[in-house]
Write a structure and sequence with these properties.
The protein has helices at residues 3-8, 10-13, 30-44, 50-57, 60-76; strands at 18-25, 82-90. By secondary structure, it is an alpha+beta fold. The protein has one domain (3-90). Strands 1-2 form a two-stranded antiparallel sheet.
Length: 94
Protein backbone atom coordinates (compact mmCIF):
# COMPACT_ATOMS: atom_id res chain seq x y z
CA UNK A 1 0.00 0.00 0.00
CA UNK A 2 1.25 3.48 -0.77
CA UNK A 3 1.46 6.37 1.66
CA UNK A 4 -1.44 8.03 -0.15
CA UNK A 5 -3.62 4.93 0.23
CA UNK A 6 -2.81 4.78 3.93
CA UNK A 7 -3.78 8.43 4.40
CA UNK A 8 -6.99 8.01 2.38
CA UNK A 9 -8.04 4.97 4.44
CA UNK A 10 -6.61 6.12 7.77
CA UNK A 11 -9.76 5.21 9.73
CA UNK A 12 -9.18 1.52 8.95
CA UNK A 13 -5.67 1.64 10.38
CA UNK A 14 -5.99 3.84 13.49
CA UNK A 15 -5.95 0.91 15.91
CA UNK A 16 -3.47 -1.22 13.96
CA UNK A 17 0.29 -1.45 13.96
CA UNK A 18 1.48 -0.49 10.49
CA UNK A 19 4.98 -1.20 9.20
CA UNK A 20 7.04 -0.41 6.15
CA UNK A 21 7.94 -3.30 3.90
CA UNK A 22 11.54 -4.42 3.63
CA UNK A 23 12.75 -6.44 0.69
CA UNK A 24 15.70 -8.84 0.66
CA UNK A 25 17.09 -9.94 -2.70
CA UNK A 26 18.66 -13.40 -2.71
CA UNK A 27 22.43 -13.29 -3.09
CA UNK A 28 24.67 -16.31 -3.39
CA UNK A 29 28.38 -15.88 -2.71
CA UNK A 30 30.63 -18.16 -4.76
CA UNK A 31 33.55 -18.05 -2.33
CA UNK A 32 31.35 -18.84 0.67
CA UNK A 33 29.75 -21.73 -1.21
CA UNK A 34 33.16 -23.12 -2.15
CA UNK A 35 34.40 -22.83 1.44
CA UNK A 36 31.42 -24.80 2.69
CA UNK A 37 31.59 -27.44 -0.05
CA UNK A 38 35.34 -27.95 0.34
CA UNK A 39 35.12 -28.21 4.12
CA UNK A 40 32.29 -30.76 3.81
CA UNK A 41 34.19 -32.79 1.24
CA UNK A 42 37.29 -32.85 3.41
CA UNK A 43 35.31 -33.93 6.48
CA UNK A 44 33.22 -36.54 4.67
CA UNK A 45 35.49 -38.08 2.05
CA UNK A 46 38.98 -36.66 1.84
CA UNK A 47 42.05 -36.55 4.02
CA UNK A 48 43.26 -34.01 6.55
CA UNK A 49 44.84 -30.93 4.96
CA UNK A 50 43.17 -31.58 1.57
CA UNK A 51 41.30 -28.30 2.03
CA UNK A 52 44.57 -26.33 2.08
CA UNK A 53 45.81 -28.09 -1.04
CA UNK A 54 42.67 -27.57 -3.13
CA UNK A 55 42.60 -23.85 -2.30
CA UNK A 56 46.04 -23.55 -3.92
CA UNK A 57 44.42 -24.66 -7.20
CA UNK A 58 41.51 -22.23 -7.01
CA UNK A 59 42.21 -18.86 -8.59
CA UNK A 60 40.25 -15.63 -8.36
CA UNK A 61 39.17 -16.09 -11.97
CA UNK A 62 37.60 -19.45 -11.02
CA UNK A 63 35.61 -17.84 -8.23
CA UNK A 64 34.58 -14.99 -10.53
CA UNK A 65 33.29 -17.45 -13.15
CA UNK A 66 31.23 -19.30 -10.55
CA UNK A 67 29.90 -15.98 -9.23
CA UNK A 68 28.81 -14.96 -12.75
CA UNK A 69 26.89 -18.22 -13.09
CA UNK A 70 25.18 -17.75 -9.72
CA UNK A 71 24.22 -14.17 -10.61
CA UNK A 72 22.84 -15.31 -13.97
CA UNK A 73 20.73 -17.99 -12.28
CA UNK A 74 19.27 -15.50 -9.78
CA UNK A 75 18.40 -13.05 -12.57
CA UNK A 76 16.29 -15.64 -14.42
CA UNK A 77 13.36 -15.34 -11.99
CA UNK A 78 13.88 -12.16 -9.98
CA UNK A 79 10.34 -12.13 -8.58
CA UNK A 80 10.84 -15.50 -6.88
CA UNK A 81 14.25 -14.56 -5.51
CA UNK A 82 13.07 -11.91 -3.07
CA UNK A 83 11.67 -12.06 0.41
CA UNK A 84 9.55 -9.38 2.05
CA UNK A 85 9.66 -8.67 5.74
CA UNK A 86 8.12 -6.33 8.29
CA UNK A 87 10.54 -3.44 8.66
CA UNK A 88 10.07 -0.14 10.50
CA UNK A 89 6.90 0.87 12.33
CA UNK A 90 4.89 3.68 10.77
CA UNK A 91 3.87 6.35 13.26
CA UNK A 92 0.40 7.73 12.59
CA UNK A 93 0.02 11.15 14.19
CA UNK A 94 -3.46 12.58 13.72
Amino acid sequence: MTKEELITNIDQFKEMNVYTLGIHHAALNAKDMLKSAIKNEECDNMYEEWENLIWKDIEDKDINQIQKILNRILKKSPKQNIACYQDKPVEIDI
